Amino acid sequence: MITKTPQVSVIALGANLRFDQNTPDVTLRQAIRCLTERGLVITAQSRFYATPCFPPGAGPDYVNAAIAISGDLPEVEILAILHEVEAEFGRKREQRWGMRTLDLDLICHGERVLPDLEKYESWRRLPPDRQLEMAPDELILPHPRMQDRAFVLVPMADVAPDWLHPVLGKTVRQMLAELPDDTVAEVKPLAP
């Protein structure tokens, strides 16, 4: 009998605004609890990190983290759960890369490349000025800019350091090692 290996996915969490008088780190803890209450099976959780706001000057610094989940939920169902929880914590989708009470991003879903390799590559290669103006109207996996962002890779290295990017052919550790040292150093663990 063949047993199916559960799908491993990584969700990045971030917040830089208070919600209901709670600091961003408290919001992230509460959001993780809400995700488990909605049936997501968390297999690993990163430390919490203080990270500079992206893009620079767009608001207060962030608290970022990552969780790994397992199971066989389709990515669209995971995304729907993430959007429900974001809304519960006051997330409004008004400005791309703006300040947020809660941001939950599905970074990867196993080895899936969505919607297809050609569209994935067009989003991955989008110039930075166009990234600010454009948002995809469908789920793009893996996240097309994860390899460029220390605030994603540092927490992800805590939960899935050996996950292999299905397009780039690099692990999280390898992608992190390719980032400039000063960029990685900006992502600082919060005191427990």
TrEMBL record:
Domain 7,8-dihydro-6-hydroxymethylpterin-pyrophosphokinase, by residue range, is: 10-161
Q: Which InterPro entries match?
A: Hppk, Hppk_sf
One GO MF annotation is: kinase activity
Tell me where on the tree of life, at the top rank, the source sits.
Bacteria
Which pathway is this protein engaged in? Answer: Cofactor biosynthesis; tetrahydrofolate biosynthesis; 2-amino-4-hydroxy-6-hydroxymethyl-7,8-dihydropteridine diphosphate from 7,8-dihydroneopterin triphosphate: step 4/4
Give the UniProt family note. Answer: Belongs to the HPPK family.
| PANTHER family to which the protein is assigned, alphabetical | 2-AMINO-4-HYDROXY-6-HYDROXYMETHYLDIHYDROPTERIDINE PYROPHOSPHOKINASE
- Chain's role: Catalyzes the transfer of pyrophosphate from adenosine triphosphate (ATP) to 6-hydroxymethyl-7,8-dihydropterin, an enzymatic step in folate biosynthesis pathway.
Q: What is this protein called?
A: 2-amino-4-hydroxy-6-hydroxymethyldihydropteridine pyrophosphokinase
Q: Which organism is it from?
A: Ruegeria marina
